[in-house]
Design brief:
The protein is an alpha+beta fold and 440 residues long. The chain is built from 16 helices and eleven strands.
Length: 440
């Protein structure tokens, strides 16, 4: 944060009811430049077809004009460019809105100001799209809720087409709870209404916020803070008979209940609550199941099997035991995510198989280190070694197809691996580290 935004954050922290009526002066040329330099050079261009490098060269000119228009409330954000990216493992594609580079800088700058204010209000149950916390924090918090509290039932839920369902009227009302500066409000309103360019044709934006813009993340978190987080904390928890724990990462959330009656009561009201704010649940990704320490014993006694599993942030959560027979919550890479990682490795190796071995080795290390960094959780070694062994075999097959001379035998392949070893799995998120993250 800049010094000015830090002062805003301090005021927001000291007075939870304070509404900020003067924020635009924090939108400075220095803040725009700082956010511009954070955008990678290979980032996609917007409807103006200007690259990051070109935008940097013209910074002095467009930044001055932009800030003048913002202060005069005459700035009109250009529509975002609609692109479709494939959903891993699926035929359907995900629509992404790509703003212009200059507009992206302004969005990020306004987002920094909003983050300084609303970070003081956001609850500890919310993780996605926030500074300093991420998926591993959410996983650690959920692991603690299931293992160390009275959890007998788990309600796993996902919001259907969340980003394209956000109601603009409600979004502005939620922002106005803390922001009263008419220039900032005008900017946010115009971003929501900016529209989309799809294959040269303009489409209005009467509802939703396009994924891809910096402002969309903070708006979505503010929206769900009031729709779900505060409602569960202030209205739901006091009415429950037993313990309840709640973890949300953007539009995915999980609740842990002590009693089934509480879980059923929540399930009976959640859809009405969401409907009020133009949201709905994705039925294929929403379910209630018996899960946890007592649940494992009951399921074994009553049905002779383990409780069902559920997935959250790419991990499958399951009930198991330690060597001494006590309960332990197990985490492993979700089957779909594992298959997608394997497909990504295969496609990469096929594409680069004719390049020098050093270049191939760098690409392999980059993919595997990224995978191990995220999925390197304590107890997930079997899934990690599946990726390692798959990479080992697939690279040999791809090298064998570089020429017509035949397959690469293991003796020659072993010599290659001595110089270019494939990274072995490593656990980055140990049980001790998960306990530490859950307590932050």
């Amino acid at each position: 944060m800049t010094t000015g935004i830090e002062r805003v954050a301090a005021k927001a922290r000291s007075d939870s009811k304070l509404k900020f009526t003067s924020l635009t002066h924090h939108l400075s040329k220095e803040l725009l430049y700082k956010n511009l330099m954070r955008i990678p050079l290979n980032s996609g261009h917007g409807v103006d077809d200007k690259s990051v490098e070109e935008t940097r060269l013209r910074f002095d000119k467009w930044s001055k004009e932009m800030l003048t228009e913002v202060h005069r409330k005459s700035y009109k954000p250009p529509p975002v460019r609609r692109v479709f990216i494939p959903k891993p493992g699926r035929q359907e594609k995900r629509p992404i809105g790509v703003p212009t580079i200059s507009d992206r800088c302004l969005q990020k700058s306004v987002g920094d100001i909003l983050t300084g204010i609303f970070e003081q209000d956001f609850l500890a149950s919310s993780f996605g799209g926030r500074p300093g916390v991420g998926a591993h924090h959410a996983i650690s918090q959920l692991q603690r809720a299931i293992s160390a509290t009275r959890c007998n039932w788990v309600y796993e839920a996902d919001l259907k087409s969340f980003f394209t369902s956000i109601d603009h009227g409600w979004a502005m009302r939620f922002v106005e709870e803390r922001v009263g500066d008419p220039r900032i409000l005008s900017l946010i309103r115009r971003w929501l209404k900016a529209g989309v360019m799809n294959d040269g044709s303009f489409e209005k934006s009467d509802v939703g916020t396009p994924q891809g813009g910096s402002i969309s993340v903070i708006i979505s978190n503010i929206y769900l803070h009031y729709v779900l987080d505060l409602w569960i904390e202030k209205a739901v928890k006091p009415r429950m008979k037993g313990a309840i724990n709640y973890v949300r990462y953007l539009d995915d959330f999980v609740l842990c209940f002590e009693y089934k009656s509480d879980a059923n009561r929540f399930r009976s009201v959640i859809e009405k609550r969401l409907e009020k704010f133009s949201l709905s649940l994705e039925p294929t990704k929403t379910k209630l199941m018996r899960f946890g320490r007592p649940a494992r014993m009951r399921m074994k006694e009553m049905y002779g099997r383990k409780p069902d599993t559920f997935s959250f942030l790419g991990f499958t959560f399951y009930c198991t035991t330690t060597r001494k027979g006590s309960f332990r919550l197990g985490l492993k890479t979700e089957k779909g995510r594992l298959n997608r990682s394997m497909l990504k490795i295969k496609e990469c190796l096929v594409r680069i198989r004719h390049l020098p071995l050093l270049t191939q080795h760098k690409s392999i290390k980059q993919i595997l280190h990224g995978h191990f960094r995220y999925f390197g959780v304590g107890g997930n070694h079997l899934s990690l070694y599946r990726i390692y062994r798959y990479t080992l075999k697939t690279w040999r097959k791809c090298l064998s197809r570089r020429s017509q001379s035949g397959r690469l035998n293991w003796e020659k392949y072993d010599k290659i691996l001595r110089y270019y070893p494939i990274p072995k799995p490593k656990t980055y998120l140990t049980y001790a580290r998960m306990i530490e993250l859950a307590s932050l």
